[in-house]
Inverse folding.
């Protein structure tokens, strides 16, 4: 793994602007493999499918792979393989990913995972940071050399 990108977003930031931030690194190209962690209901996967041409929309370009994972159900999407009712932090999910990805490798791991907000900002922030850190374990298994791990997390600062 060579890059760890961590965009910080405020609650008001639109998913599309966050996605633009992520793809500004040019990491998602036709033929690439993308793992979308916390994929439901599927907005980021939809953009990833277009970027990597995983639905084969452009027959002139190499066809990529998109695998989305979520604890929740995810509506089907042409060009994406979803693992609903799966926990990204579970080693059994990692094993399935190794089977689904070409050569067991991903060029990009995206994460928009978020815990259910409890209303206690410090606790929610810590849970989210733990989720992001758990992706390092996944990245060590599936990210190809030079690949990118991109995590979104909420910022939090203690009140003085
Ligand atoms: C902000 S939503 C994702 C929205 C998605 N990026 C989209 O574009 O439609 C956060 C998702 O993270 C999922 N999530 C939270 N913890 C998870 C875990 N341990 N494993 C898989 N998904 C998780 C939640 O179920 C929720 O659907």
């Amino acid at each position: 793994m060579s890059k760890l990108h961590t965009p910080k977003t405020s609650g008001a930031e639109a998913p599309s602007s966050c996605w633009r931030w992520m793809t500004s690194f040019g990491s998602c190209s036709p033929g690439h493999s993308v793992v979308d962690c916390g994929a439901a209901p599927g907005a980021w996967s939809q953009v990833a499918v277009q970027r990597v041409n995983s639905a084969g929309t452009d027959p002139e370009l190499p066809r990529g792979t998109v695998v989305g994972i979520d604890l929740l159900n995810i509506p089907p999407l042409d060009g994406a393989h979803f693992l609903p009712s799966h926990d990204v932090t579970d080693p059994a999910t990692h094993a399935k990913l190794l089977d689904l990805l070409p050569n067991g490798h991903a060029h990009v791991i995206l994460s928009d995972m978020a815990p259910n907000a409890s209303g206690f900002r410090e606790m929610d922030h810590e849970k989210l940071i733990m989720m992001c850190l758990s992706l390092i374990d996944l990245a060590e298994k599936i990210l190809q050399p030079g690949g990118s791990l991109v995590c979104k997390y909420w910022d939090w600062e203690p009140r003085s």
User: Anything to note?
Assistant: Residues 15 and 77 are 18 Å apart (CA to CA).
